[in-house]
Specification:
Radius of gyration: 19 Å
Keywords: Hydrolase, Signal
Number of helices: 8
Pfam families: PETase (PF12740)
Helix content: 25-40%
Number of strands: 9
Protein name: Dienelactone hydrolase family protein
GO molecular function, one term: hydrolase activity
Largest sheet: 9 strands, mixed
Organism: Saccharopolyspora endophytica
Length: about 300
């Protein structure tokens, strides 16, 4: 697979705009080079409330099944990826299912996130009973496979990787970030872990809990996780109103909206998505609690 990096008309325009603005700043003194800078690879049109809550984003998506027999360290899975590469390399995120779950339980996230401009790997674990720390290692193994061995490796910027996970997979995503400081974003979904202190996590983390979770009650899991995280470089806690532990196992617009915005903001460094995260949302009946260190 051959990737053309930032060769499309829109990318050429962006480069011309940045260079022109920088020149104006040098000549007129009114704009600095820092002010002229922008993310290396901005993907997609300017976001709107409608675009980030739509079932699909602006990118066409293809997928590839990865057999557990062809990989080591995890149980295989499915890679979802945008087919339009004209605007450069993509960030990538691996997602782990929860205890007793398979990739089918998180499959909806694959095309929904990929259509917004990410390479997404929904994985199976070695065993459905694997504990969070094992899932952390498997998330890392899946990222290693994505960036080094997969057929889509040339689409991915290996410096912009993140992890997500449901339940024990969510706890695994926190542990993966604790173990790998290079990760750029973490989104645990109704996470479960016996460890409550994740103060060593250095990646921006969005913890999504569920108000009526009886498997991983937010008072024992999501909230302590959030409270233990450092304020810098950014964290948020979103609680789904009236939802159960299994809310992330089916298509959920609130999870998608904030997950997309968080990954765009911190994997892609795309500040166009600040508007959906800061200031915190008010009056949304789907959210029973929202806390964050906004502004980021």
């Amino acid at each position: 697979m051959e990737l053309k990096r930032s060769t499309g008309p829109l990318s050429r325009f962006r480069r011309l705009l940045v260079v022109s603005t920088a020149v104006l700043g040098l000549v007129g003194g009114s704009v600095t080079l820092a002010q002229a800078a922008e993310p290396a690879d901005v993907h997609g049109p300017d976001p709107t409330e409608e675009s980030i809550t739509a079932p699909r984003g602006p990118f066409e998506v293809d997928e590839e099944s990865v057999s557990r027999l062809s990989v080591t360290g995890f149980g295989g899975g499915t890679i979802y990826y945008p087919t339009d590469t004209t605007d450069g390399l993509f960030s990538a995120v691996s997602i782990s299912p929860g205890y007793t779950g398979t990739q089918d339980s998180i499959a909806w996230l694959g095309p929904r996130l990929a259509s917004q401009g990410f390479v997404v790997f929904t994985i199976d674990t070695n065993s459905t009973s694997d504990q969070p720390d094992s899932r952390a290692r498997q998330l890392q193994a899946s990222l290693d496979y994505l960036t080094n061995d997969s057929s889509v490796k040339d689409l991915i910027d290996p410096a912009r990787l993140g992890v997500m996970g449901h339940s024990m997979g969510g706890g695994g995503s926190l542990k993966a970030a604790l173990d790998n400081p290079a990760l750029k974003a973490v989104v645990p979904l109704t996470p479960w872990h016996t460890t409550k202190d994740f103060s060593g996590v250095g990646a921006p983390t969005l913890v999504i809990g569920a108000q009526n979770d009886t498997v991983a009650p937010v008072s024992q899991h999501s909230k302590p996780f959030y409270e233990s995280l450092p304020d810098d470089p950014g964290k948020a806690y979103l609680e789904l109103a009236g939802a159960s532990h299994f809310a992330p196992n089916r298509d959920n617009t609130t999870i998608a909206k904030f997950g997309i915005s968080w990954l765009k903001r911190f994997l892609d460094d795309d500040t166009r998505y600040d508007q959906f995260l800061c200031p915190p949302p008010e009056g949304d009946p789907a959210i029973s609690d929202y806390q964050s260190t906004c502004p980021y």
